[in-house]
C-alpha cells in the first residue's frame, strides 16, 4: 500500500491524529478526539421488538462502513454508540476529500496519490469532518447514512464529535488574556470547530477591531460636540461602508487561507430535500432536479409573510407605544404608578408570544421552500427570524424618531379627541395639557433599548441555558434516586476506568446542538443599532466594543460548555449576512441623515416644502432596493455560459472521480486478515475503552442486553403495580 506523507502544518501538538502523539503513561492524556463520534439512540418511546430491530440496523450500518462501535448505557433510556474509525480508513477518507476539493477547484494543487493513499490530517477538524461523513453521508457515498431524527433514524437523537476539553480550556484561557484575537487564534478555532464556526469569530474579531474608531470619535463627540452631531454621523456612515467593504475582502482572504473558497457548491443534498426527477445529463452528472421557478416562487412567499408579520408586530408596538405616551404625558386619573408600567408589561408579554408564533410559521415556510442543502435551509430560517427581531428591536426607536417627535403635536391631540368621543369615562381623565415635545426622548429610548438589549441577550444566551441544564441534571438525579423510572445507568455499573469519560459523554449527549447563525445574527443586529441610531447617542460604539470583548469569549465558552461539539462543517464566509449588512448600511445612511436633519438644531421639521427632498431621497432608495432584489433573483438563475463551462470541467474530472469514489463501504469488503489487523491495532492503542467489545457481535450483544434490561425492569415493575 503506497503511503504518501505530506508535511502537515500542525500548530498545536494536542490537535494531531491518533498515531502521532507518543505513548503517554496517563490514560486521560492519550485519548484522541479526531477519530471518534458518538451516536445517541433513544428507545424510550418504542416497544422491545422495534427497539432491537432499529438498534441492530443502526449497528450494522455503522459496522458495514468499517467503523468499530463500543456500546454503553446513556441517561434515561438511551444507548450511546461510541464510534471509532480505523486510522487507515479515516486517513484514506481525508485524502479523498482533498482530491474532491481539488477536482471542484477549491484547492489548486492535486494531492499526490491513488485511491489507497492514506494521509494524516492537517488539523483535528479535518479528521472529524471525514468522521462525520463516515457516519452521516448516504450509503451510496460510502457513509453509514445515519441522519438523526429523520425517517428510519427518528429515534437517533444526535450524532456528535466529543469535546477536546484540554484544548478548549487552553484556548479559552489564552483568549481571555488578549485584547484582540490574532489570526493564529482564529486558525486554532478553525482547527477545533471547522471554518463555519471560525468565520463567526473572524467576523466578530474584525468588527470589534473596527469598532475602536467610532468608539473614539463617539467619546470625543459625546464630550465636546453638540448633541446629534453631524460630524460624528458622517464619520459613522463612512465607517460602516468601509468596514463592510473590508470584511468582503477579508472573507475571501480567509477562505483561501483555510482552503474553503468555493466549498458551498460542493454541498450534498439534505435528506429532506424533495426532487421531482433524477436526471443524468450529457456530461454523466446525476442531478436531483427540482424546477428553479418552483423554488423561487416558493421563496417569494416570504415577501407576503414578512409584510404581514411587519404589519402585525408594527400595529402592536405602535398601539402600546401610543398608550405609553398618553399615560405618561396626559393621563391624570388614579393609580398612575401602575399604569406607567402597563405598556411595558403588555409588550413584554405579547412580543415573545407573537414572535414565537411567527417563528413557527417561518419554520414551516422554510421547510416548504425545499432547500437543497442544509446550509441554505438553516440560513433562510435564520434570516426570517432576523427580520422579525429587527422589527421588534428597531421599531420603537423608529417610531420615536420619525413619528412621535415630528408629528406628536398633531397625532396626540387628535387621538385624545377620539378617546373623549368614544370612551368618555377615560377621556375625561386626560388633561387638556398642551403637547410637550420631548426631543431627549429619542436619546433615552436609544440608551434604554441598546443597554437592556445587550444585557438581556447576554443573560438569555449564557446564564439561562446554564440554569436550565443544571435544573434538568438535578431532576434526573432526583428521578434516579427516588422514583421507579427505568433508568439504564442505575441497572448497570460503569467500569471504574471509564466512569469519568462516560460521565462526560453522557453530559454532552444531553446538550443542545449549536447553531452558529444565531451568534452571527446577534452581531448583525448590534451592527444595525450602530448604523441606524448611534447619531442619537455616540457612546453606543464604545459600549458595543466592551460588550463584544466579553461576547466573543463567552460565546467560545458557551460552545464548549453548553453545546455539543459542532460538526466541523466548512463554509467560505458568513454567506447572505453580507446582504443583511449591506441593507443595514443603506438604512443607516437614511436613518442617520434623517435623525440629524430632524434633531440637530432643536428645530423639528414639520411638513411643507422641506420634507420634499426627503421623500425623493426615500423613493430613490426604494428603487435601489428593487434593483438589488432583481439582481439577487438573476444571480440565482446564474449565467448560462458559466454553467456550460462548469459542466465541461465536470466531464473532465469525472474519469478521476470514478476511480477515487468507489461506492463501496469499507466494512463490507475487507478480508479476515485486515479485520484481525485492525483489532490488533485497537488493542495496541492506549485506550482500553475501545477494546471492550472487539469480538464480532459483541457490540450488538451489549446493546441488546441494555434494551432487554430496561424492558424487563419495566415489565416486572408493571406486574408489581398490578399486584398491589
Ligand atoms: Ca453570541
TrEMBL record:
It comes from the Eukaryota. The keyword Nucleotide-binding does not apply. The chain crosses the membrane at residues 197-224, 230-247, 300-321, 341-365, 385-407, 527-546, 574-599, 611-634. Its main location: membrane. It is found in: Membrane. Residues 189-648 form the Anoctamin transmembrane domain. It is a multi-pass membrane protein. Residues 1-29 are annotated as: Disordered. Residues 35-156 form the Anoctamin alpha-beta plait domain. Keywords: Membrane, Transmembrane, Transmembrane helix. InterPro entries: Anoctamin (IPR007632), Anoctamin_N_fung (IPR049456), Anoctamin_TM (IPR049452). One of its GO terms (cellular component) is cortical endoplasmic reticulum. GO terms for molecular function: chloride channel activity. This is Plasma membrane channel protein.
Amino acid at each position: 500500500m503506497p503511503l504518501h506523507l505530506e508535511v502537515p502544518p500542525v500548530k498545536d501538538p494536542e490537535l494531531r491524529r491518533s498515531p502521532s502523539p507518543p505513548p503517554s503513561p496517563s490514560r486521560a492524556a492519550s485519548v484522541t478526539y479526531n477519530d471518534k463520534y458518538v451516536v445517541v439512540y433513544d428507545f424510550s418511546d418504542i416497544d422491545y421488538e422495534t427497539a432491537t430491530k432499529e438498534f441492530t440496523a443502526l449497528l450494522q450500518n455503522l459496522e458495514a462502513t468499517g467503523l468499530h462501535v463500543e456500546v454503553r448505557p446513556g441517561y434515561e433510556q438511551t444507548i450511546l454508540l461510541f464510534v471509532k474509525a480505523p486510522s487507515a480508513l479515516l486517513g484514506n477518507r481525508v485524502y479523498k476529500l482533498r482530491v474532491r476539493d481539488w477536482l471542484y477547484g477549491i484547492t489548486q494543487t492535486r494531492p499526490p496519490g491513488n485511491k489507497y493513499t492514506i494521509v494524516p490530517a492537517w488539523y483535528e477538524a479535518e479528521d472529524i469532518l471525514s468522521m462525520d461523513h463516515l457516519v452521516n453521508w448516504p450509503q451510496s457515498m460510502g457513509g453509514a447514512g445515519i441522519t438523526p431524527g429523520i425517517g428510519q433514524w427518528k429515534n437517533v437523537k444526535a450524532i456528535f464529535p466529543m469535546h477536546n476539553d484540554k484544548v478548549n480550556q487552553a484556548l479559552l484561557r489564552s483568549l481571555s488574556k488578549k485584547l484582540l484575537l490574532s489570526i493564529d487564534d482564529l486558525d486554532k478555532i478553525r482547527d477545533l470547530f471547522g471554518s463555519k464556526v471560525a468565520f463567526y469569530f473572524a467576523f466578530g474579531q474584525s468588527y470589534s477591531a473596527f469598532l475602536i474608531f467610532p468608539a473614539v470619535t463617539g467619546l470625543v463627540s459625546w464630550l465636546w460636540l453638540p448633541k446629534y452631531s453631524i460630524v460624528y454621523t458622517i464619520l459613522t456612515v463612512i465607517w460602516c461602508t468601509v468596514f463592510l467593504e473590508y470584511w468582503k475582502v477579508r472573507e475571501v482572504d480567509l477562505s483561501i487561507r483555510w482552503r474553503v473558497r468555493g466549498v458551498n457548491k460542493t454541498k450534498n443534498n439534505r435528506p429532506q430535500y424533495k426532487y421531482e426527477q433524477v436526471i443524468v445529463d450529457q456530461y454523466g452528472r446525476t442531478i436531483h432536479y427540482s424546477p428553479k421557478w418552483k423554488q423561487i416562487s416558493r421563496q417569494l412567499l416570504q415577501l407576503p409573510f414578512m409584510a404581514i408579520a411587519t404589519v402585525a408586530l408594527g400595529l402592536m408596538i405602535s398601539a402600546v407605544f401610543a398608550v405609553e405616551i398618553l399615560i405618561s404625558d396626559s393621563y391624570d386619573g388614579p393609580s398612575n404608578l401602575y399604569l406607567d408600567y402597563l405598556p411595558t408589561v403588555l409588550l413584554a408579554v405579547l412580543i415573545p408570544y407573537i414572535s414565537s408564533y411567527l417563528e413557527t410559521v417561518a419554520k414551516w415556510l422554510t421547510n416548504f421552500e425545499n432547500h437543497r442543502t442544509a446550509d441554505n435551509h438553516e440560513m433562510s430560517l435564520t434570516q426570517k427570524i432576523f427580520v422579525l427581531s429587527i422589527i421588534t428591536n428597531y421599531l420603537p426607536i423608529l417610531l420615536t424618531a420619525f413619528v412621535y417627535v415630528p408629528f406628536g403635536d398633531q397625532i396626540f391631540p387628535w387621538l385624545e379627541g377620539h378617546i373623549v368621543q368614544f370612551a368618555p369615562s377615560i377621556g375625561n381623565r386626560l388633561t387638556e395639557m398642551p403637547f410637550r415635545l420631548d426631543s431627549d426622548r429619542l436619546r433615552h429610548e436609544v440608551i434604554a433599548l441598546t443597554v437592556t438589549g445587550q444585557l438581556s441577550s447576554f443573560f438569555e444566551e449564557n446564564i439561562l441555558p446554564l440554569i436550565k441544564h443544571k435544573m434538568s441534571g438535578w431532576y434526573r438525579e432526583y428521578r434516579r434516586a427516588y422514583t421507579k423510572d427505568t433508568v439504564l445507568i442505575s441497572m448497570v455499573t460503569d467500569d471504574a476506568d471509564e466512569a469519568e469519560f462516560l460521565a462526560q459523554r453522557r453530559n454532552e449527549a444531553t446538550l443542545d446542538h449549536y447553531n452558529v447563525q444565531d451568534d452571527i445574527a446577534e452581531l448583525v443586529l448590534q451592527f444595525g443599532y450602530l448604523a441606524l441610531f448611534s447619531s442619537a447617542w455616540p457612546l453606543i460604539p464604545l459600549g458595543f466594543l466592551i460588550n463584544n470583548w466579553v461576547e466573543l469569549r463567552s460565546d467560545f465558552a458557551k460552545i464548549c460548555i453548553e453545546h455539543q461539539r459542532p460538526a466541523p462543517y466548512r463554509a467560505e464566509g458568513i454567506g447572505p449576512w453580507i446582504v443583511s449588512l449591506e441593507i443595514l448600511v443603506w438604512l443607516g445612511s437614511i436613518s442617520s441623515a434623517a435623525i440629524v436633519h430632524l434633531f440637530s438644531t432643536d428645530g423639528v421639521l414639520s411638513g411643507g416644502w422641506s420634507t420634499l427632498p426627503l421623500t425623493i431621497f426615500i423613493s430613490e432608495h426604494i428603487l435601489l432596493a428593487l434593483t438589488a432584489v432583481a439582481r439577487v433573483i438573476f444571480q440565482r438563475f446564474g449565467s448560462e455560459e458559466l454553467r456550460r463551462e462548469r459542466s465541461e470541467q465536470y466531464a473532465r474530472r469525472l474519469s478521476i472521480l470514478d476511480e477515487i469514489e468507489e461506492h463501496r463501504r469499507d466494512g463490507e469488503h475487507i478480508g479476515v486478515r485486515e479485520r484481525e489487523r485492525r483489532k490488533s491495532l485497537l488493542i495496541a492503542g492506549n485506550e482500553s475503552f475501545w477494546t471492550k467489545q472487539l469480538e464480532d457481535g459483541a457490540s450488538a450483544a451489549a446493546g441488546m442486553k441494555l434494551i432487554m434490561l430496561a424492558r424487563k425492569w419495566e415489565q416486572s415493575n408493571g406486574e408489581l403495580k398490578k399486584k398491589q
